[in-house]
Design a protein that fits this description.
Elements lengths: L1 H36 L5 H21 L1 H7 L3 H23 L3 H8 L2 H13 L7 E6 L2 E7 L2 E4 H22 L3 H7 L10 H21 L3 H17 L4 H24 L7 H13 L2 H6 L6 H22 L23 H34 L3 H25 L17 H45 L4 H16 L26
Helix pairs in contact: 2-4, 2-15, 4-17, 5-7, 6-7, 6-9, 7-9, 7-10, 7-16, 7-17, 9-10, 10-16, 14-15, 15-16, 15-17, 16-17, 17-18
Length: 511
């Protein structure tokens, strides 16, 4: 009898515990589904981010053999670290996602100031107890802040896109408080002109940031400068207005090159690196190695010099048919395949299918970004979304072109996939901004779709009654098409029309 009651008690306890576990799992599943169902941002972009993160974990777990040896650790430790970075990155993304776009507009005006402060620390090579400029790969591009290594350029390009979004909106609204205050003084009356305001708030910041970046990287200067130029073009600055700025930029580059040669490479040292990379790209790296007899010192030196480019080309060539996860051979020879040559690694292990998936993800991001831009309700939001989407997809495209030997090496990583703490956190911030702004755009889109459905239903009802004139029916159809495709673009030029309202009835934050 005792055994019977013991068995019965254990059985009932197990059933109750199992029931609680199922209830808990069911509750967790409902919470996750409730979150997904209530997600107000662009769900396609959200899914793109999640897929990129999953690809990143798979790729980094397989490509970091050399990194583990260099750091004296194990790949398991690197994978655990990557999981931690992913968790922090997702936390940053969701934290930013829940912020108001108006808050972004308020803080964006300080993006230029923050960028200048960070870049100044690199240029001045600060060495303070809590902040220190790090000399890595013959250049100062990172800061050690309380032990955390921050790659400054990764954040500067995002801060500047957001700043320029604010600047073009403020230019259209004539909302430059400092310039307007100076214009009241006799000596600064010239600040009343729109050209002076554009120079002070748009052109000069672009040129200054580009010049400061050039101290550490020529390729980053060209890429970030191009993104900043594209951003203000989206914001409504005309191409012909940029021509003088471009000429000034070329003049500054010419002065930097002249200073480099006049100082025997002591000033603007990275210009020499840029020149050597262009020369290497224009030459046949394979022939440069094969011209020496195998086993000689010259052969080994040439091989070491061209190892990255040759390894990446070999990985892509061998990746027509996939080798399979974990079977890459080039990860043992290409030193930074987990960063600068991640696309080549993915092609080697996953073949053309892996390459197509990567292309599809970044191409979809670009398409969804253009859709969000159409439904944004202010110049600031349009400019920021377009600038960030162009930044992410443009960097991905440049990374892929370099990996297939169609562009000189620049060191640009594959966004959200390549190994790198600062890069991952910076792009998590960027995606958080995109998803946050897409919330208001999605609301506007839903309103437009409901209006289009109502207009279509009314048009069909009138057609059925036969009481509508043909011309009126055509006007109704045209209205439906406009609503379905998105409202007409907001004029972006400051001289064309008044700025659109922010759409939510709230007053903008003062500068």
């Amino acid at each position: 009898m005792h055994h019977y009651f013991s068995i019965n008690y254990c059985t009932n306890t197990f059933i109750m515990a199992n029931s609680k576990t199922k209830t808990s799992a069911s509750s967790s599943g409902k919470k996750i589904w409730s979150f997904i169902d209530g997600f107000a941002g662009d769900r396609v972009i959200f899914m793109i981010v999640l897929i990129l993160i999953m690809i990143s974990i798979l790729a980094i777990s397989s490509s970091t053999s050399l990194l583990a040896n260099q750091l004296g650790t194990t790949r398991s430790a690197i994978i655990r670290e990557q999981f931690l970075i992913v968790i922090v990155g997702l936390a940053v993304m969701f934290m930013v996602y829940y912020m108001s776009p108006k808050f972004f507009k308020f803080i964006s005006k300080y993006g230029f100031l923050v960028s200048v402060v960070l870049l100044s620390m690199l240029v001045l090579k600060v060495n303070l107890p809590f902040v220190k400029a790090l000399h890595i790969n013959d250049a100062y591009r990172s800061l050690s802040i309380l032990g955390f290594q921050l790659h400054v350029y990764e954040f500067v390009k995002i801060f500047m896109v957001m700043y320029l979004g604010w600047a073009v909106q403020a230019y259209k609204d004539d909302d430059f408080a400092i310039a307007n205050s100076l214009a009241k003084m006799d000596h600064f009356a010239f600040m009343q002109s729109s050209l002076a305001k554009k120079i002070m708030y748009i052109y000069a910041p672009i040129l200054l940031v580009s010049a400061m970046i050039m101290v550490g990287s020529v390729s980053s200067t060209l890429f970030i400068g191009l993104i900043m130029g594209a951003t203000i073009l989206v914001g409504g600055i005309r191409i012909k207005e940029l021509i003088p700025v471009i000429l000034v930029g070329f003049a500054l580059v010419g002065l930097a090159v002249g200073a480099y040669f006049a100082s025997d490479g002591k000033m603007f040292e990275r210009i020499g690196t840029g020149i050597s990379r262009i020369a290497k790209f224009s030459s046949d790296s394979e022939q440069e190695v094969l011209q020496y007899e195998e086993g000689t010192i010259e052969f080994k030196e040439a091989l070491d010099k061209n190892r990255q480019a040759l390894g990446a080309k070999l990985a892509v060539k061998e990746g027509i048919l996939p080798k399979g996860p974990g079977r890459s051979t080039q990860k043992y020879t290409v030193p930074v395949i987990f960063e600068d040559y991640m696309f080549a690694f993915i092609v080697e292990e996953y073949g053309l299918l892996g390459a197509l998936v990567i292309l599809l993800l970044y191409g979809s991001l670009l398409a969804r970004g253009s859709r969000i831009v159409r439904y944004c309700d202010s110049i600031y939001q349009k400019t920021v979304i377009a600038g960030l989407v162009l930044l992410i997809s443009g960097q991905a495209l440049m990374h892929m072109l370099i990996n297939v030997d169609l562009a000189p090496m620049t060191g640009q990583t594959l966004p959200m996939i390549s190994h790198g703490k600062s890069s991952f956190l910076a792009f998590s911030l960027a995606f958080g901004v995109i998803l946050s702004i897409s919330r208001s755009a999605e609301k506007r889109l839903l309103a437009a779709q409901e209006e289009a459905s109502a207009a279509l239903a009314a048009s069909r009802a009138e057609e059925a009654e036969g009481g509508e004139e043909p011309s009126s029916r055509e006007e109704s159809r045209q209205r439906v098409r406009v609503l379905e495709e998105g409202e007409e673009s907001v004029p972006l030029s400051p001289t064309d029309s008044e700025a659109p309202d922010d759409g939510d009835g709230e007053e903008d934050l003062d500068e």
